[in-house]
Design goal:
By secondary structure, this protein is α/β, with parallel strands linked by helices. It has 2 domains: about 20-125 and about 205-330, Glycoside hydrolase/deacetylase (TIM Barrel), CATH 3.20.20.370; about 130-200, no CATH class. It is built from 17 helices and 11 strands. It has a 7-stranded parallel beta sheet, with helices on both faces. It has a two-stranded parallel sheet with strand order 2-3. A two-stranded antiparallel ribbon has the order 6-7. Helix 3 (about 40-45) links the parallel strand 2 and strand 3. Helix 4 (about 50-65) runs parallel beside helix 16. It starts with a helix and ends with a helix. Bound molecules: zinc ion (ZN). It holds the Pfam family Polysacc_deac_1. It is found in: Secreted. This is NodB homology domain-containing protein. Keywords: Signal. GO terms for molecular function: hydrolase activity, acting on carbon-nitrogen (but not peptide) bonds.
Length: about 325
């Protein structure tokens, strides 16, 4: 509340405009995720934004005078020794199906280019994302999950009613072949129509055909690992995640990806040479900040935007006002430690 009052005041005083000038040579990399088909923005506003919110954000990007560029352009500016003024990149993580109807029209309307960091597993395996769907169904219907007499889980548990943790641990034990049957039983029990999800893209990823079409329309498709796993893996498995992801992206788009986004923004320092070995030019995290001249290209920060962020907070980040406030507060934070 105090933050919002302070930001309103700073904006009214014209300090957002001043902040934009002061931070002009610090590129902004915006980070987005999915779009809600239905009520997913209430379930997980950090992942599923309302398309109307995204459209208003793009209008603000335009209003503040930015013309988004590609990650290749950002990389070239870095190699040339200096970032150009007002450089901005739009990135979208994961590959949620609804971005096609919920984000692409706004991007087209403003003539903005964007990058999609694609995890390929659920593109190839076209079914709802298992874990998130289980969380969603328990969030919406509050359980309990009573097993039907012919349940595929009956041979594997003595329980009649399962909690969310029971479902997830059983699924982990039984393997991915059980995921879709379990999800179907769970939806049947709660009365949710999963077949509809397959049509409207709820909790689904883009299909292979959609990815190919979007790439042909100019959306840059880049790496996000095949199974959305990286920091938790050993070097061999992490390298395989990158290679599998690269394989599918090449197959879907006809072009090799050269940029990467760490799943959940997390990485181990010893994993960074894997990116160099793959000849990747940049990699991004979810550290919320503007890029600086000295920011390492393989751990670039971004401005994370979602439905939990108000328009005023977004403008405060976009203009660089928040960066200046964080800089001003840094010495006091150090003293506290
Ligand atoms: Zn992700």
């Amino acid at each position: 509340m105090i933050k919002m009052l302070l930001l309103s005041l700073l904006k009214a005083l014209g300090l957002f405009i001043l902040a934009q000038k002061i931070t002009a040579r610090r590129p902004r990399i915006l980070c987005y995720h999915g779009i809600a088909v239905d009520d997913e923005y209430k379930f997980s506003p950090g992942v599923f934004m309302q398309s109307a919110t995204f459209d208003r954000r793009m209008a603000l990007v335009k209003k503040w005078g930015y013309s988004p560029v590609s990650l290749d352009e950002l990389y070239q500016q870095h190699q040339a020794g200096q970032y150009q003024k007002n450089t901005l990149v739009i990135t979208i993580d994961d590959g949620w199906a609804a971005i096609e109807q919920g984000m692409l029209p706004s991007l087209k309307k403003y003539g903005f280019c964007a990058t999609l960091y694609l995890s390929s597993y659920y593109v190839i395996n076209q079914r709802p994302v298992f874990k998130l769907s289980v969380y969603y169904l328990f969030w919406k219907y509050k359980g309990p999950f009573t097993l039907a007499d012919n349940s595929c889980l009956k041979p594997h548990t003595t329980l009649q009613q399962l909690s969310i943790n029971d479902v997830l641990s059983l699924a982990a034990e039984l393997g991915s072949a059980y995921e879709q049957p379990i999800l179907q039983e769970l939806a049947d029990c709660f009365g949710e129509d999963i077949a509809l999800w397959q049509q409207n893209g709820k909790l689904m990823f883009l299909s292979a055909e959609q990815v190919t079409a979007l790439a042909a329309q100019g959306l840059n498709i880049e790496l996000h690992t095949h199974r959305h796993k990286f920091s938790e893996l050993n070097l061999t498995d992490a390298a395989k995640e990158l290679a599998d992801n690269q394989h599918y992206i090449l197959q879907l788009t006809g072009r090799a990806a050269r940029h990467f986004c760490f799943p959940r923004g997390e990485y181990q320092p010893e994993q960074l040479p894997l990116l160099t070995a793959q000849q990747l030019k940049t990699a991004t995290t979810t550290e919320n900040e503007l890029v600086a001249r000295q920011s390492p290209l393989l751990t670039l920060p971004r401005l994370v935007d979602n439905d939990k962020v108000s328009e005023l907070e977004f403008e405060a980040e976009l203009s660089g006002m928040m960066t200046l406030l964080r800089l001003a507060a840094a010495p006091f934070k150090r003293d506290k430690k």
